Amino acid sequence: MLRVRKGIVWGLAALMAAGPSLGYAQEKTNPAAARKLDVSYITPGAVAALVAHPRRVLTAPEMEMLPVEVLSAMGKQTLGIDPLDVEQVLAIVEPPEQGPPGYGVVFRLAKPFQLQALKLPPYLPLVNTQLEGRLYRQSQQPLLPSFFMPDEQTLLVANDAFLKKMLANRKSPVGGALSRLLGKTNNSSDVMLVAVLAPIRPMLSAELANVPAPPALEKFKRLPELIDAAKADLSVTGKAGASLVLLSSTEDDAQELLALLNEMLDMAQQAALAEINDELESDDPVQQAMAQYGQRTTRRLVDMFRPQREGRKLRLAHDGINGGNVAIIGILVGMLLPAVQAAREAARRMQSSNNLKQIALAMHNYYDTFNSFPSRASFDENGQPLLSWRVHLLPFLEQGALYNQFHLDEPWNSEHNKKLLDSMPSIYRNPSSNLPGTTRSNYLAPTGPGSIFEGRNKTRFAQITDGISNTLLVLEANDDASVPWTAPDDFKYDPKNPLVGVGKAHPGGFNTAFADGSIHFIAATIDPGTFLHLLQMADGKTVNLP
Could you tell me the residue ranges of all domains in the chain? Predict the structure, then answer.
């Protein structure tokens, strides 16, 4: 009942806000529609791109009911840039090879702008340096963005290595599958998303293979194998409309894809109708009427999502948006939000995996220097723990300057050392965490019986008789099990119930780093006994991970 009510409210709100202007939008043409997109910043290895035109949308007559003044003021206050001055946004993503994934955003501005005027969060680890003779605000963390303006009306925001790849490609363009696909578009839509799935198909298939799914949904794990590329367009100005095109390698693949998508829609419709049907049994005639409305709109929405096949292409389009169906578009947006959230979580999970990879690499560099892994903490002469291994690993994470600020002979919460809690490097925080502030870490070392970090001793490879590829080194704990990052506290598990405190770092499970430096995602449904074997380094039990 509540979901039906929300759908109606949001639909009516959208209709009231946009209906009067969208009615005449059909007859307008967009003068910027014929402009070709500049693809020179798109590296040949990039697999996804988002193109948007903020200024075009925010200044269009059809959008006169938007709170443009508020958006403009907020942009200038928080970032130093007026959204009305952003002509075009081009965001691109390149999958990781050995290091972190590459990402970058190209902002095309309507007016000259100085990088010094850009307002950035103070916690970003940036240093001011020079690149191509211009100011460069360079990030000191591989996954966090750097900022550069190659000219007065172009702002690049990207992680450091990828930003330099973008600039190099701009000077000597090398085309890739994504840039070729984007180069053929007319750039007329207000928002466009293009993805080339073929290069990342093995990674997508491997990720899906590890996701627990009911037997009825297992068949849908084949979707990445059937899609080579995807393109989504949305326009709310000019000739308004939306479309989605999926491209398969062969017509047979396209036919199989069409059948799977229709089956997914049928299942979604059945689930929605089953919930709505409960309202039909109400004695309240208004509730019954609302349930009938829900039935009608659900069937209509599912029909709108039915794709049509044209050879190797599947196309779903809805043109000529008008005031009468803006309510439906509002509901569609609500239905798509879970997919957007899932994509964001996938990116956070990948970033967290990279954090653990960097921590494991630092652990190995520590081992190369001291011929052992670090102990779980440093200790005073009375055996009292002082500072966590996370502090003593700082020099191996390019954080030597921060490490030198600690008083190593004092506990983590001494008057001096507790002032450094707010200086936690971002690499010690799970990007999916909902913890407030920046002082607590989700990355913990197992310190229970038989683990690498049990007691005060430093462990050597020879002691890990189960094998370094079978023994956990660091794991992601739940938010409620996180600890102050400098504190000598970690994952002290109970052998009778070793999963307490883990399993909720991401939907479905949590990332782990093993003693050989490999990273694995472990499902929350893992057998407790199996997980216990992974925690212990010499119990004589080995586990074959996928």
Answer: 1-28+198-324, 43-196, 352-535
